[in-house]
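Ticket #4471: structure export looks truncated?
Reporter: QA, pipeline team
Priority: medium

Steps to reproduce: submit the single chain below to the structure queue and open the exported record.
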Amino acid sequence: MNRSAASIIVVSGMQGAGKTTVADALARRFARGVHVSADVLARMVVSGHLWPEGREMSDEAAMQLRLRLRNLCLLGRSFAEVGFAAVLDDIIIGERSQHLREEMGETPYVLVMLTPSLESVKAREAGRGTSLWEQWAWMNEEARATPGVDLFVDSTALSVEETVDAILTGLQPVAER
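Actual output as written to the record:
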């Protein structure tokens, strides 16, 4: 991959997979890189925000989740259009990969799925003082079966920098297509 070329890389994975940390480190590897975080977009809603309740969710939560994805893609495309490598992070699993395709339209992007072991996610969350993995454990298998993924990275035994290296190495064939 030519790191100075504008591109869009979407980093996904289950809750607690390390998406935000990895996406930020990846964006810093480019001469002109930007990290667009779904978490930051979610925090912009200062009242009335609904988190998805689980695999099945209310219409309002689903609408807000789709709006977050739309804005994530709009920002990513906006930065890429002026020469930035845009690294986006969000939970894009299952049918949300189709939503991503719809929101990106004709804009090329690559989808990277972080797939650390569930034990690794549990350990990360314990370090944060949370146990969200219990509520979202179903995402582990769904992430691994998501269609349209360009690169799967098992980051279980990798540091953040090693994960970024694996992504950059793994995406070279994708970028050359």
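Status: closed, not a bug. The export was complete when the record was re-opened. Leaving a note from the reviewer for reference: The chain has one domain: 7-175.
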